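Researcher: I'm comparing several assemblies side by side, and this is the next one on my list. It has 690 residues spread over two chains. Same procedure as the others: predict the full complex and return the structure.
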Amino acid sequence: MKKLNRNQTDTWSEMLALGDIVARIKGLRVPADALTWHRFSGSLLLVLLVLLFLSGAFMTFYYSPAPGAAYDSVDYALFSVPFGDVIKGVHYYGWNIFLIVMGWHLVRAFIVGAYKSPRQLLWVSGVLIMLLIPALIITGDLLPWDQNGFWTTQVRISIIASVPIVGDFIVRLIQGGPLTGIVALTRFYVLHILFLPALLIFLIVVHFHFLKVRGLSGPLFKKESQPETISFFPRLVNRWLLLFLGVTMALGIISWYWPAPLGDPADPTDSTFVPRPEWWVLFLNQLVTVFKGPLTVIGSVIIPGGLVALLMALPFLDTSPERHPARRKTVILIAVIVAVILLGLSITGYIEHFNENHA
Amino acid sequence: MKTIINVSMGVVLILSISILMRQQLAGAHTLIVTARYAKMAPQGLDDSIWNTAQAAQLLVEGREPVVGAPGTVTTRVLYTDERLFFLFKWKDPTHSITKQSWMFNGQKWVHLKGNEDRIAVLFEITRINKFATRGCAITCHSPADVPRKDWKFATKTDDEKGDLWHWKAARSAPYGYADDAWLTVAGNPTGSYRETGRRKDAGAGGDVKNETPDGIRPFYMQNSAVKPSVPGFLLAEEAVKITDYSIFKSGDIIPYRLPLKPSGSRFDVKAISRYADGGWMVMLSRKLDTGHEDDVVFNPKKRYSFAIAVFDDSGSEHSKATEPMTLLFSH
């Protein structure tokens, strides 16, 4: 019987012309610490991304991208479809946790100097992925067509419009007119479910390409012996599936007990609504608040753009081969100062927008 | 080093999730009224379990002629696995539990002043466009250039439906319920109202006018063989036709609106009420899901827009209403 099954498998592999790929996957070896208790953020990001794709795909079955129907379709998917609230919750908490883990992934890579030669482009592709995620969130926030999503989008559009030269053009491009209406909603929807995910997948493929070619960053202190390896399939894949199962269950339970919020339906005529910025843009929001009037561009473009440029250029600016953080004091000190400023801005933003006792 | 990384990761995740939770609870700009979960249903107005629910002070304001005299309705909300409970408390200097009662002045029957105290709560059965941000104003088609007599209490389209709970001191309180109605587009009026979008839920209830066909005197009186089940009120089921008007003397009073025994979906919202210390306390309760199409279904995972109006010894023109509010459930 065993032989028969093996023959069938072989036959299928041959029929599908996948024999070489299957053999290569079976023969692939990866470092033993590729997915362990102390190195899991990359794998966790992949788990979350898969969950975001799956939950998002499910929600498209019920979503109607028209201002008069969008809110009701989300409401229906959330509260009338069995386990709809869990699916929506997985999507909602998924991207929030994705941002946190992505931040941690970046910080860890920075601390252990994983951006250094020969992994410069691995780092750059990671930063590009990080820049794409906010675009997915921004386009996704408008889709439920609730008050918070609608008015938050208005704030973001006004910030984009303040960008010199290209601001108005970008707004026209994504909004399709002077107002946020059906054209804007359709464009945001298509961007959210089609173009941006496609670009994200492309960047992830590029990221994995560099990861495979350049390998994971090794230990900070060189070891005499050869690094221990394990098989990609089934050992690493099994670990990943275990992580997937655990995260899915955890997110499912959180979503069941604390459903994703859905605010009041959007009322474009209700200009009294003051949206509260999401936690991950609190520092950006404060920057825009600090630099007012003609200086807005400093807070909305120059400083954030400068930080992004610095991140992208980091592997080419810090070219010393030293990876241990204790021997990279200047770079670490600059990073700590930037982090403290961003954290300080976020805390003041939080106090301003969320502390009800704040006058 | 590994331990430090692991602990840091855990702390960051816990802090981040805490922030997310906090943000979720922060809510929007509309007033949030939170229904607290209770294992046991409150047994009345004075049940100490009400103290577990936060008291929301809801501002009610009126238009002409009561503009400039805002009031407050203190509201607590509880829910169990089966039912939702509201406790309303508001000041009302006049204890009005009659509605245009008849009085014999020695020569003829005349209507007394008095238009009962009321409280009404409006929810959405299906979404009413802009109700969440405009509240009752969006269902009251009363633009400034339209005469008051043409104002309509209705929704704009067939798809928009409201659920109206209407507690009336003279007409529903005697049977311990709030008249359960629903709101749709105006037209095809039923009952005694002018053309409006108000519709009665299925079942019996409401009241009948106690008047002769020519409308000049009462038609019914208390059946002397039956002890009034609700002292001070004349229930339709306990009334008999007046055969001899000579028995009445000057100053005798007979109610004009006789409550009918409620049943069916119209009897979904149960009520307990008391007038004391210059104000009303009214407790309304209803099943979370009645199974009736003319009722809003409460899902504790959802949020609900609603608004409240109080009426002090008055008709619709003297109502004071809240801004739109949001009802959230908290376990």
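Model: For your comparison table: Chain A is about 70% helix and 0% strand.
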